[in-house]
Amino acid sequence: MSSLTDTLGRPLHDLRISVTDRCNFRCTYCMPKEVFGREYEFLAREQLLSFEEIDRVARAFVRAGARKLRLTGGEPLLRKNIEDLVSLLARIPEVEDLTLTTNGSLLARKAEALKAAGLNRVTVSLDSMDDTVFMAMNDVGFPVQKVLDGIEAAAAAGLSPIKVNMVVKRGVNEDSVVDVASHFRGTGHVVRFIEYMDVGTTNGWRLDDVVSGREIVQMIEAAFPVEPIDPDYRGEVAQRYRYLDGAGEIGVITSVTQPFCGDCTRARLSAEGQVYTCLFAGKGSDLRALLRNGGTDEDLDQAIASIWSVRADRYSEIRTSQTVSIRPKVEMSYIGG
Ligand code: SAM
Ligand code: SF4
Ligand code: SF4
Asked: Which CB contacts under 8 angstroms, 24+ apart, belong to 218-221?
């Protein structure tokens, strides 16, 4: 195991790999239509890392200590033949967990192939059980039932335990918290309620729109009593709770009200090969040029070591109204959450 740590003593444990910046949804908190409209210029095909290039970078991150890989986007299932990338990554012996985060829209079609290629689990985003609310949030009129079909197909294919991500935004879907909890209680799927974050600069984030993890737990507690349970491992971002009646567990991700930078062990690779050491970073470090200019594996190892060893990010711990509005920040759809 590599002993690579950053300036705050944090090891490198997870790599999130964005495979595309495109998406078939326009979630208002992530890719608002007014910005990501017809004229928006997404990355061109030749700008994207090929699967072979992603595999090389992933292997270098694994040599540097990464043990968890997560594919994300944009919408990762839009990337053609994504299962071929999964089978490349599934061959890296040190990887303990190979997962993918999706909006679920194409999952019913893809679940079997992903499982066969070696994917371990999926996380599916779903912000409401109510079509009117959900369609307004994804802003392309996509119905809840199709996401549920995707979740079912993933469970049937054995891509479990499934996590369900729900971003909670004040005045938009807070009334759906108990519905979503109730729907997935007893299914073995774990809902994770996520505080609405100020990622990027396009979603018009305001602190007033954040429903705190504490409030979320109180809403659930009023319907179904819960108690806190210990984290599974260092760097787990969700605070975990279990239903007292044994119907399973939930997680709450309090990036805004109770940040967890001290334990943040994640690196992020954009679809064009930029490495970001924080979700709120303004700038990445380019690995694509190195890959395409004949860089060796040793060069990659050195680049990653020099990126991680100077890392000092703790944005959420030092967030103020000033940093929210002034700093340049990368978009969530580009970097993958
Ligand atoms: N398209 C896939 C999906 O939606 O699951 C993967 C990429 S998406 C950027 C990854 C996760 O980030 C999703 O669960 C999404 O809900 C979450 N997300 C996006 N914007 C967010 C925001 N402003 N605050 C909190 N979570 C956000
Ligand atoms: Fe697309 Fe996911 Fe962003 Fe929604 S959250 S717009 S599904 S990338
Ligand atoms: Fe990690 Fe940056 Fe989030 Fe802190 S703000 S937990 S350093 S990604």
From this structure: 219/174, 219/177, 219/178, 220/177, 220/178, 220/181, 220/250
